[in-house]
Amino acid sequence: xxxxxxxxxxxxxxxxxxxxxxxxxxxxxxxxxxxxxxxxxxxxxxxxxxxxxxxxxxxxxxxxxxxxxxxxxxxxxxxxxxxxxxxxxxxxxxxxxxxxxxxxxxxxxxxxxxxxxxxxxxxxxxxxxxxxxxxxxxxxxxxxxxxxxxxxxxxxxxxxxxxxxxxxxxxxxxxxxxxxxxxxxxxxxxxxxxxxxxxxxxxxxxxxxxxxxxxxxxxxxxxxxxxxxxxxxxxxxxxxxxxxxxxxxxxxxxxxxxxxxxxxxxxxxxxxxxxxxxxxxxxxxxxxxxxxxxxxxxxxxxxxxxxxxxxxxxxxxxxxxxxxxxxxxxxxxxxxxxxxxxxxxxxxxxxxxxxxxxxxxxxxxxxxxxxxxxxxxxx
Length: 379
Prior knowledge:
The protein is α+β, with helices and mostly antiparallel strands and 379 residues long. The protein has helices spanning 7-11, 19-33, 44-58, 61-72, 122-127, 153-158, 299-304, 362-374; strands spanning 145-151, 160-171, 186-188, 197-202, 205-210, 219-221, 233-244, 253-256, 272-278, 284-287, 290-298, 306-311, 317-322, 331-334, 340-341, 344-345, 348-355. Strand 10 and strand 11 (290-298) form a beta hairpin.
């Protein structure tokens, strides 16, 4: 269960790893062990679930802090005093460096660990009134899902919506979360006597952990659900439309409450955190709130002057005058046609480049030579 695993060991990172290091390692492992990429490996799904479970805690700043606090106090069977990568077995019943008489003066109510999964009784047994009464596993918030979304340049600039496909854990539609096959009976779990938790003791302390047999439910089916194999949940794909605010840039994040994984035991759904990656545009580039558009003109236009038409972000056509003698790289400003954000609006700059013809007809060649010689050039 989540409360007895060394999540740092699961992801293969040190306990001092940065948030970015943890995220990169999670993405690498999730891609490697995703069930869709390992259909011939029956253990891939369990490994993927274990990796996701670890990242749910270590990828969240608040949950990671709570987890580290409890880990230092030896709440995970000996992990407290050991460096990452050297964790003991999740089945050990010891406290590691914890010793009787060092329980402290706090109470469990000072710790908010409801999101970590089934640890609600752990500190009440250590800091409260001695041994705690075993209780069934309470509601847990669902998984927080993070995903990077490619956003077309113009949608990012003007605002709009983009669709994304998500894979989340949802309550099994066959057993409705019970883990039982249709028609099967639920009976009290023999491992935990129907309490949903099992107790481990050392010295004057008792520690309760979610039962690994019934997964904290307190009941086990006489026959497992064939759809979810008794897990009570399954991975499903969901398409969601994401609103992109005007002026969004790469790296910007938006959090959608309740759009993440489904909560366990009646808990609230997790959140969906979207990171935008703005795709390049074939015409525009961005400089702050200003837009830069490059337009090619020929030598005659640059020399004699001309009029050209450009399109703005909202597809308006605007004509601008190119004066005679314009050089390559010259920018022409169109006020108020840039990106609008937070009540401010940038400008559109049209930058010209001069193109040279690869071939000339005889008449064009003669005219060019005459023009050059008139300017004092000799061939």
